[in-house]
Design a protein that fits this description.
mainly alpha; single chain
């Protein structure tokens, strides 16, 4: 893996970990609903709110 790809991968994993930790309780509550929806052919719409810098 190139250094650039490794940096990107590491950053992506870090963001996913942060999103999971921040939203753990909600994800655990909604997991069964989301899973059922996707299994039935539904889609998930995700919107990202940019943080002020």
């Amino acid at each position: 893996m190139s250094p650039l790809a490794a940096t990107y991968f590491s950053a992506a994993i870090g963001l996913l970990k942060q999103a999971y930790e921040t939203n753990r309780q909600t994800l655990q509550q909604l997991g069964p609903i989301i899973g059922r929806t996707v299994a039935e052919g539904g889609v998930i719409h995700a919107f990202v709110r940019q943080r002020p810098q």
